[in-house]
Amino acid sequence: MASQYDVIVVGSGPGGYVAAIRASQLGMKTAVIERESLGGICLNWGCIPTKALLKSAQVFEYIKHSADYGITISGESQADFGAVIKRSRGVADSMSKGVQFLMKKNKIDVINGVGKVKAGKKVDVTAADGKVTEYEAKHIIIATGGRARQLPAVPFDGVKVIEYRKAMSLEKRPDSMLVIGSGAIGVEFAYVYASMGTKVTIIEFLPNVVPVEDEDISKELAKQYKKLGIDIYTKSEVTKVDTSGKGCKVFVKTPDGEKTFEADVVLSAAGVVANIENIGLEEVGITVDRGKIVTDDYYRTNVEGYYAIGDVTKGQALAHVASAEAIICIEKIAGQPHVEPLNYNNIPGCTYCSPEIASVGYTEKAAREAGYELKIGKFPFTASGKAKAAGTPEGFVKVIFDAKYGEFLGAHFIGNNVTEMIAEVVAARKLETTAEEILKSVHPHPTMSESIKDATEAAYGEAIHL
Q1: What domains are defined for the chain?
Q2: Above 50 in pLDDT, residue 1?
Q3: Which of the chain's ends, N or C, has fewer CB atoms near its CB within 10 Å?
């Protein structure tokens, strides 16, 4: 007889564990199946440990420039790479233990092993010793997440050609690194390693670094990275990596012809692919399109009783997206009133390099293509008292409004700590706040966040501080 549950969640990342907790809160008997560590990639190998690495890199940068703050440090400062990695892993472990506590607190059964969905609302779980146990639930949620995309021309070997998991657990800092791809993963690791002394080169296939961002943001990051000594090649493609020698010989097709680069390590950061293989989708008959599980607005698949959330679906592959989808999915299952579908055009994106990047809504290009007449304002942090006092005047705030009605179409930030600012715009857009209301909202001074109001003033020809 299979063990019976109301909800079984396959995967315990920020989608899976949130779904399980919300289900338990709503009175459902719940289990989570996890093949590795609770918290999934985000807590163990993604969001959290990378931020620990970035903080260490930032602290090292502060120390190197302490004289700019009137502080003299005698002797040469050095980054203990092994200790930096150890701290990052410790932070990840503590967060995973936190999820264990939440599972116990919410009386959720944790089943260790590899889950495979079956017809009849059943799941087989294969334990480490090979034993297979069948479980059954009224509702089965697939939240198996994603993994690093492997390019055909750049296969991983785990030593010289690596992906993000290995990049945050290397035993020794390489003298040189070539990074393929300049999305969030690529530029974050580029900053970590470059700040600690590694010579970093970024190869990007598209015309701009951080290609999903507004073009002004991309240009600013490229400028700041070049100051840091990072070489950037856009409109370029890695065609081959030769690892037969001591390091890597990388062949790259650029707009100026074929070039050859040498690096100790190649980090492939060319995106994420969904973990949907060998989890029973074909046997159950769940529809897949272009590598993603097809769902409706409430994450129901085409097979009754089966759901999918997070990186395995069409939405942005972001932890907070997975968590939001999880809550919507569970509340709809529970029959909660007024469950609202997620607005994917109001999802904040954050990149934790230095300077940080945060954005939400339309880019300028997308807004124009959508037919809007625009009012655009920019406020540079060189004019911000808080940024100047902090010694971080790099970057700016850019806001985009519909000229006709004042609708807040989008915002794009680059600078110190801007990832802590973007939520104001997300909430404003959710509440259908107009430019006029931003102008009349008193912002505290001195703060970085007042630059949102300053940029709005600039958009409407009312700038006080420019």
Answers
A1: 4-148+273-334 (3.50.50.60), 161-270 (3.50.50.60), 355-460 (3.30.390.30)
A2: no
A3: N
